[in-house]
Sequence to fold (670 residues):
Amino acid sequence: VRLLERNRRTLREQGIRWRITGVANRRIGWISDANGLDLEPILQGTPARPGIRTQDIRGWLKASAADVLFEASSLNPSDGQPAIDHIRAALETGAHAITANKGPLVHAYEELRSLAAAKQRSFLFESTVMDGMPIFSLFQRDLPLVCLKGFRGILNSTSNLILSGIESGLSYEQSLEQARQLGVAETDPGHDVDGWDAAVKTAVLIRVLMGHAIELGEVEREGISRLKEEAIRAARTQGRPYKSLCQAWREDGRVLARVSPQQIPLSDPLAWVEGTSSMVEFETDLLPGFAIREDHPGVDATAYGMLSDFVRAVGPPAQAAGGDATAGGDGEVQS
Amino acid sequence: VRLLERNRRTLREQGIRWRITGVANRRIGWISDANGLDLEPILQGTPARPGIRTQDIRGWLKASAADVLFEASSLNPSDGQPAIDHIRAALETGAHAITANKGPLVHAYEELRSLAAAKQRSFLFESTVMDGMPIFSLFQRDLPLVCLKGFRGILNSTSNLILSGIESGLSYEQSLEQARQLGVAETDPGHDVDGWDAAVKTAVLIRVLMGHAIELGEVEREGISRLKEEAIRAARTQGRPYKSLCQAWREDGRVLARVSPQQIPLSDPLAWVEGTSSMVEFETDLLPGFAIREDHPGVDATAYGMLSDFVRAVGPPAQAAGGDATAGGDGEVQS
Fold:
């Protein structure tokens, strides 16, 4: 919301006007006002709650008269719910759906993509992998004819932070606590240290960019928790530090994938990805050694991914680079 | 041409059919056949030359009935000619112009962009910096609202190769000769080792991505040739190797820029960019530490940049990611 506010004028110059007509989370429930909510009380966390209250996603979308849904519920690796229901409901009622939640992509990507196409709405998810880095847009719009053969990358901040902490002398528990205090690790860090978060991201990249409907269970998964602290420190001293590596490759008409701690030599750029940074190297048929890196992102980077999806969904169509972009109609968007 | 051939079926599936109706270079002059040239004799270098002959770019474009110009003449840093004339003529006669030549961007970017917009044609140049890496498309289409504050990068292969050679014990002359044998260095390597090539790329990124019409002469420029071989080797031994670094930053409403050899610590990913690889780190307001790397590209990577521009120019409009792309009309393109 703050990023939307900050970019209000620039968005208007591109023909995009907006107002927030609904907000929902576990704490406040489903709140709507089709004329626009006063968000300050909500952002401040005060008890005064504006708007009318509904009971579920469909009632809420209707009361909000939403054109766009921003879905940012937390990851449920086992079945992707309730995020899938939220997105399905939005698309069915004719709203664009933007999500930062990876679960729906692993469990219902093909269904939701088809639904979006049938409804001529956008289903966008740029924030799900590497925050706001435009990985999906890049492959789907800017790399025509390219076939993605595989990738390797470091995609889980918490594991990366914990390994760095242990290398610097902390115990596993101390290092995890430090990651928590930095606001990176969840209260239950199992998704991270057992490799679930990275496995889900790997599966998402495979489904969307490699066109193979891999099941999450097919991603071989080994967390960092099985590593001994001494081994982690020794590996760093030897110049081949451990990193939690995501890998995917094509083999016999299938895509195979693995998330596992691996020792990486310092001559490999992936060895230098520290803390909350991430990096993916893509192996393609036409672009040798194409890699994207993101350094020390904060929550703003995720928010930017959702904002950029918003512009893709409701903004003027993308122009081939070089021409002067011309804004579309001055439509008003309710989200 | 070989890359176009190889992708003929995939292009047709996207509604793009093409034939080559004109070829021109210093050796064979201006050759056209609006019904399509038989390119094998030209690709094989045999003396039998098909087509009708014209005298200049305008006669040639007309005889070729060209819809798209692929401009790949060599860099002229001093005034960007004759490439500017080629591109101007193409746009004026209603053809899209695609160039791999940086000169026109430094000397006539704003004029050519306006001309393209007025003619509703595309003026595209993805191959000019980092070969086929989609830097320009990325910023112009996939990073809405982002402001580029500056960048640092390694963009000249020859300098990078020569430095690596000297570090491994070769003399400057031997190392240059090795780069020549690899087909990377020009016969006259002055553009590379004196920093001209890197300065032109820096100026192009500034003009196109930072919106500041910097003159080439404003880019502070220092080549690698002033470095002593011993100093280069000592720097490597100390773990702070020399790299020819391109930098740009905003200051007092202007953009300042510099190309110079600098010592870079091994903890900086740029220190690990070797040989013909390249990398740019972008400093933006919204995406922390966004970087793109390309590893050991060959001539195919440059060709891919032009091919991807071709798809942008004549293919179906880019879809927001997530929707199913639908092909446009089955138009035939002559280029």
Notes: Chain A touches chain B through 66 residues (CB under 8 Å). The first helix of chain A runs from residue 2 to 6.
